[in-house]
Amino acid sequence: QSALTQPASVSGSSGQSITISCTGTSSDVGGYNFVSWYQQHPGNAPKLMIYEVTNRPSGVCNRFSGSKSGNTATLTISGLQAEDEADYYCNSYTSSSTLVFGTGTKVTVL
Amino acid sequence: QVQLQQWGAGLLKPSETLSLTCAVYGGSFSGYYWSWIRQPPGKGLEWIGEINDSGGANYNPSLKSRVTISVDTSKNQFSLNLTSVTAADTAVYYCARGSYSYNAMDVWGQGTTVTVSS
Questions:
Q1: Which of A60, A79, A87, B19 counts the most CB atoms within 10 A of its CB?
Q2: What is the average pLDDT value for chain A, to the nearest integer?
């Protein structure tokens, strides 16, 4: 199975909004609403930020939101803050009953 | 507060078998699925596989021939075995809890660094 495609890096100034895309196929992202997003700071384990495309777990800031159109899911971070600087990974269920991660995106706060 | 504590050998020689165990503390073992994920140095996350509390497992097709994930419900533990390791298997290995409510992995272990070197 091929990794989902994400931009290698995205940057924005403090207070701005940024988006991270996650492109797959109709056999994964496009076929199911089981897309999740994870934030990973250096040296730490990933943290769940969004599940089932649009939902935030309890305790996750509402500046994080998710959406999907066709085979592409998108994570939006509004009001970018210094602590948002991290790597972000999307993940999707697939038609083979497996999971696949995206290639990862490094977010830089300018 | 659910916590996952993982352990296993950190240094292996090529052709040896990688074995890691993850224990679940402070929460139920049943009603969830249990996953392993790895991250090579400087690279992205790779899903290895998962098992439910009944023992049903799914694996990454690229690793399926070498991977076994098992569960010991009496100890609230699950384990990863990866045979015939090579340098390409050098990575930080994470265990994680999969939630059917979220259809996502909501609790993660601390990670174990595994190095394969002769």
A1: A87
A2: 97
